[in-house]
Amino acid sequence: MRIAIEINGVLRNTLEKIEQTYQKYMIDKTEGLEDEDSITREVKHPIDSLELRNHFSFIDDEEIYSFLYEDFSMEIFGHSQSSEYNTFIDLNEIYVNLRDKHDLLIVSDEIGRSKPASLFFLSKFGCQLEKIKFYSNLTINSMWDDIDVLLTSNPALLLEHPTDKILIKYQTEYNKHIESKHSITNLKDFEFELTKII
User: Fold this and answer.
1) CA 40 – CA 27 distance, rounded (Å)
2) SS3 label, residue 188
3) DSSP letters of 114-126?
């Protein structure tokens, strides 16, 4: 079986790093300066969705893109913390236990400079998996073609996916309202959940 594990939300605490980076560069370093666009920079809590415009004051989608994929890509995607304290110890153990029976890969929705930053993130934590597949909205179908099982926290993927694919939800604050047949709250439980499915 081809089993994929997603980076954002499962392996990497991307939202927390986005919040820290926004606070540092968009609020703290601009305090007292006249904002040419006269918008009040703020973070709206709780951050319970992946819709960044709902939680961070950006002028428009272009500014969000620049913030994530041009100006602060390495800061956000390369220097994020892992989702759990032992994320990569658990991931490498899963890999060793399953690699002879299954094909394991990492997948992630990345564009532009977030790709090399994500590779840095994986290497920094000592990820042992050999296969990594980046996808976008344009290439998502090829991602689905390459996998049978997906461990994800992404609400969009949990809600809309091919019916012949198995999804395991990694529960977070922003997806807890989504029902899923298979669900875990920490990576250590992944193997056990998988044995119930296959």
Assistant:
1) 9
2) helix
3) HHHHHHHHHHHTT
Residue carrying the six token digits 């319970």: 48
3-state secondary structure of 130: coil
Q: Beta-carbon neighbour count of residue 20 at 10 Å?
A: 17
CA distance 133 to 58: 30
φ/ψ bin of 16: left (φ > 0), alpha (ψ from -120 to 50), beta (otherwise): alpha
List the Cα angle 136/139/141 in 5-degree steps: 120
84 burial level (CB within 10 Å; 0-12, 13-18, 19+) = middle
Give yes or no for a contact between 87 and 186, defined as CB atoms under 8 angstroms apart.
Answer: no
pLDDT tens, 90-99? 999 999 999 9
35-84 per-position pLDDT tens digit: 555 688 999 999 999 999 999 999 999 999 999 999 999 999 999 999 99
Taking the domain 2-13+81-197, which CATH number applies? Answer: 3.40.50.1000
Q: Report how far apart, in Å, the C-alpha atoms of 132 and of each of 50, 71, 86, 97, 128 are.
A: 23, 24, 20, 19, 11
Sorted by where each begins, the domain ranges of the chain are 2-13+81-197, 14-78
Model confidence over 168-180: pLDDT tens digits?
999 999 999 999 9
